[in-house]
Specification:
265 residues; 18-stranded mixed beta sheet
């Protein structure tokens, strides 16, 4: 039976912005190697695969090179497809069973609200090779995501936007991804960031929902705010609303479908 793939731009309300994700609606579980091959064929930062369970959906995420444990924009895209196609009513809660446990989403006045685990950052010793590969002289460094991702805090949005990392040098460092962030210079946003992940085949991710599980708790404490609006300053750009609360983080975003079809292989 042909698979229905959709391409959705997540964390944006207009096409050709935000972060594109492929969403493949399956009727039953598929072999891991097939899902990885489809993700490589789609060649987007993430491809989501979901199939129905008795109490929700199983959801898995793949980059073109590897399966990942948590992905915000492809979860947002998956929920968007379920609501838009009528598989879920607009007032229903989507339940996704994932490698990171149960994730839920709901619709709220045109925004999709996602309940994710909080991954607060912890200060670590600065690997100079990482700072140098980012083109920086010095910066505070934190780790989150079970020690697999880094977060670098810099002084000024212009530094974030002007980064030109040496990706070959980054690959020589043990990591999975690195966020670079600063307070926003614009009154509409509280903080900005960019996210680099050449280790999983993505030099720069356009908008990274999961990174805000770490960025959100940091900036909420730093700025003394319960709710924040974030901008990921990639070339495509994307907007997130972030609200940390204990061991959870609420992420709010919008999405738009730009393509649908049939996968025949």
């Amino acid at each position: 039976m042909p698979v229905e793939p959709y391409q959705v731009d997540a964390f944006t309300k207009r096409p050709f912005a935000g972060n594109p994700a492929a969403v493949c609606l399956l009727h039953k579980p598929a072999p891991v190697q097939w899902m990885q091959s489809v993700a490589a064929e789609m060649n987007l930062s993430e491809t989501a695969f979901l199939w129905p369970l008795d109490d929700g959906y199983s959801l898995r995420w793949f980059t073109p090179a590897a399966e990942v444990n948590l992905c915000g924009h492809a979860t947002l895209a998956s929920a968007h497809v379920l609501y838009e196609t009528g598989r879920l009513a607009a007032d229903a809660v989507a339940r996704f069973h994932t490698r990171s446990g149960l994730l839920t989403t709901a619709m709220d006045e045109g925004w999709i609200v996602m309940d994710f685990p909080a991954l607060p950052p912890h200060p670590v010793e600065v690997p100079w090779e990482l700072i140098s590969a980012l083109g920086l002289q010095e910066a505070p460094l934190y780790t989150g995501f079970d020690g697999e991702d880094y977060m670098v805090v810099v002084d000024g949005e212009d530094v974030v936007r002007g980064l030109q990392p040496d990706f070959a040098a980054l690959l020589a460092i043990k990591s999975r991804g690195v966020s670079v962030t600063s307070r926003s210079a614009a009154p509409d946003f509280d903080f900005v960031s960019r996210f680099f992940a050449p280790w999983v085949g993505i030099n720069e991710d356009p908008v990274t929902g999961s990174a805000h599980c770490c960025l959100g708790p940091y900036w909420a404490e730093k700025l003394g705010k319960e709710s924040l609006t974030a901008y990921q300053a990639s070339s495509r750009g994307g907007v997130l609303q972030v609200q940390p609360s204990g061991d959870r983080v609420t992420l709010r975003g919008q999405a738009v479908t730009v393509l649908s079809g049939q996968l025949l292989a």
